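[step 3/7] fold_predict: job queued, chain A
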Amino acid sequence: RVFLPDDYGAYKQLILIAQTLYYLLPFGMSQSLYYFIPRSRAPRPYLVQVLAYLAGAGALAMAALLLGGALIARGLNNPALVGYLPYLSVYVFGLIGSMPLEIALTAQGRTGRAAIAYVVSDLAKAAAMTLPGLLGFGLQGVVQGMALFALLRLLACWALHLRGSPGPLFERAALKAQLKFALPFGAAVALAVPQQAFHQWVVSSNLSPALFAVYAVGVFQVPLFDLLYAPTSEILMVRVAELEREGRVREAAALFREAVLKLSYAFVPLTLLLMAAAPEVIGALFTSRYLEAAPIFRVAVAAGILACLPIEGALRARGQTKHIFLSFALKAVVTVPLALYGVARFGMLGGIGSWLA
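[step 4/7] structure written:
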């Protein structure tokens, strides 16, 4: 509502860069905590090794943005992005490094504290991303606020998790087991990034920032879906791991079916409502200047039906990450050519159609 389409398009391009690095570089290490912590009596080495790896991954992301900023800006058809990338690099560093903040709490069975951490972090993030714009500091102020938020989150993560857990700081066997778990999942995520974000990169590189702003509004992810899906999937992973450790496999399967049913009760009617009221939703959230994004939004929100199935969480909990890799490989093979053809042939609707397919 505050930014003009050009600035909002640039903001969404910055978020696209950050999210791509955030999902790509952790390479499954943080998710390994869901598998190993519930099964270990001395979980400290698993946690410390993840924190160390993610600090290195965040530093790598920072270096990539600082050294390759001009190339990234040209690729996204917006040279003005260069001035924002130093602050974005700090944001990505802090965000990647603090990824285990809620994950470790959930894996330890401290779901109440994890929920508090989620709420506090999300509120702080929302404030950092909105208040500078509302106060007139523009896009530069917003990106600086994001960087400050990420650093504070990183400090909170380290302060909370570097103490208190039993076990040594490092354990070779534990690291080997983590890598064995994480590599297939990380490779799957490396393939999932094109499937999830490639359509946005293609659209952004072919359109002006103002038109990309319209597309970004259309592919807006309604927070209610993630608000319900993420904790359901995470708690499911922990409970399935515990039940499997105790040999109660039938109960784990029943728990998965129950999760699907509960998500369906929420997601099916919500998806249908959002599809029917797309123009009203877009107008209320983003003003009438973005009403042409309504057809794109209808296609994007249809993915809510698929979110009723927390399959990836169940597979991670059982250590079956190779199946995640195979499914993501198939998705990437299909999505990349579809996105290139769809955007060239059908424009923005072709882009979102390739993602849903």
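[step 5/7] annotate
Residues 5-192 form one domain.
The first helix runs from residue 5 to 24.
exit 0
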